[in-house]
Amino acid sequence: MKPVPKTPMGGLDQHVGFQLRLAQMTAFKDLTAVLGPLGLKPTDFSVLMLVGATPGLKQQAVGEALRVLRPNLVSIVDQLEARDLLVRGAVEGDRRSHALSLTAEGERLLVRALEAHAVHDRRIAQALEGLDRDNLLECLKRIADMEPAAVESEGAPA
Amino acid sequence: MKPVPKTPMGGLDQHVGFQLRLAQMTAFKDLTAVLGPLGLKPTDFSVLMLVGATPGLKQQAVGEALRVLRPNLVSIVDQLEARDLLVRGAVEGDRRSHALSLTAEGERLLVRALEAHAVHDRRIAQALEGLDRDNLLECLKRIADMEPAAVESEGAPA
DNA sequence: TATTGTTATACTCTATAACTATA
DNA sequence: TATAGTTATAGAGTATAACAATA
Hints:
2 copies of one chain form a homodimer.
Chain A: H1 16-35, H2 42-53, E1 57-58, H3 59-66, H4 70-82, E2 86-90, E3 98-102, H5 104-127, H6 133-144
Antiparallel strand pairs in A: 1-3, 2-3
Helix pairs in contact in A: 1-5, 2-5, 3-4
Chain B binds a DNA duplex through α4.
């Protein structure tokens, strides 16, 4: 009949946003660690996956899919291109855009990166043992797709 | 008998870490927006909640609970103290530590912040309609508590 | 010698404005 | 005029090392 230990942390541990931050920090550290030996960061990996799945994608499209602002994607693509993992090709009919596609070396590294990711994913799966992963993913997608409240420019004290 | 649309985004959308990042971004933008008018950021809010729930907490303990490194907590507490929302009191028996506690004004602002958070949480709840929130929270806690893979110091190309 | 809070600092991420070359 | 990519830059957030005071 113990009435559940009175709200630890003042209830903060029941806040989705708070737990989201902690989980994200841990998951990213783990993914960063397994990808490190390949010289890739999580964002690099996601770019390779995306371009590998849809060759010819424009930088704009990659940025939108990954929610990385266009200016910030430039140096990421620069570095991947400098390592000959992908190339900025021409798009016929529009000389402004670049069609991204993996090189043979990029494809090979992607395979190794996917194997490294599998190690990470196994740890995630182990942590989620007995829980509903599909529900988790659906929850995350729904939250990710919320329209966030309009940002108020002011209202702060001073 | 349609075999489920072939892995969109190359399967990236099935990665927990990736969806975690997107959800975290959206949730934090929303929380930041509702707290903005009070002059608080999510981290400030969590400090107020924690100290409000457990007065006398040391900075070290707050940092551990929120996973904010001690050096980075200093300016956060500085600003809250400058706004007379909390005070760094003395800890008897240890003159190194500071016992944090809310001022009356801090308590009042916390109440308003909790109301603002409720607005945010209602949007989250709406987004999660029909899904299992408890399962989500448990998944997040389990992931947050994983021991991340040991970080390899090297292995990158050049 | 170890710990708490602090300072200084660096590195990464994220964000905005403005430029260019195209369209 | 609008769009894709780019440049430059500013601002958070996060990280480590080292110091003072205290234990």
